[in-house]
Amino acid sequence: DAATRRVRAVELSEEQGTYILIVSVAKLKRLKVGRLGTFDISSGFYAYVGSAHGPGGIRARVGHHLESAAAPHWHVDSLLGVATPVEVWFAISDRKLEHDWAELLAEAPFFRTPIPRFGSSDYRRSRTSHLFYAKRQPSFRWFEDQIRIGFEAEVRPQRVVLPERQAG
Q1: Rounded Cα–Cα distance for residues 153 and 151 (Å)
Q2: Rounded CA separation 64/68 (Å)
Q3: Taking a C-beta distance cutoff of 8 angstroms, is the pair 80, 88 a contact?
Q4: Which of 25, 61, 109, 126 supports an S-S bond with 52, CB 3.0-4.6 Å?
Q5: Which pLDDT value is given to residue 6?
Q6: pTM of whole model > 0.90?
Q7: What does the alpha-carbon distance between residue 113 and residue 28 come to, in Å, rounded to a whole number?
Q8: Which of 76, 94, 89 is nearest to 147 (CA)?
Q9: CA 96 to chain CA mean position, Å
Q10: Based on C-alpha coordinates, what's the Rg of the chain?
């Protein structure tokens, strides 16, 4: 199964950028998320906004998430212990777009914030979250349209659909 997850990351760029990892949860789960506490994770879809500006870019960061549910480092790694990765939306950019994208999802009527400060606890004064919940699978076309309307023309989102696997 680890080999399958590694193959998924190969389709992603080694360049720096911002990504949204879309995952699904089949049934209600209880989840401990670091120092944030324990939460009920409802069935549905979750969108996690992250940035990848280190070595290996988007491929390395998303690859880490897909392989590390057993030894979580970031909040999203804990979520991946109970969720199935579905898609990755990303854009290549030297500019960090993580907060802008999180704000975009926070304002969308079909998303809600299930866990305050999830994925953004390193920004001490922030109450924002980088995790969003939707009952139905979010639309990449909607996201693409929002990026076209609100961001520079050089930011072109792409999508990789991940092969199916079962959550842990």
Answers
A1: 6
A2: 6
A3: no
A4: 61
A5: 46
A6: no
A7: 16
A8: 89
A9: 15
A10: 15
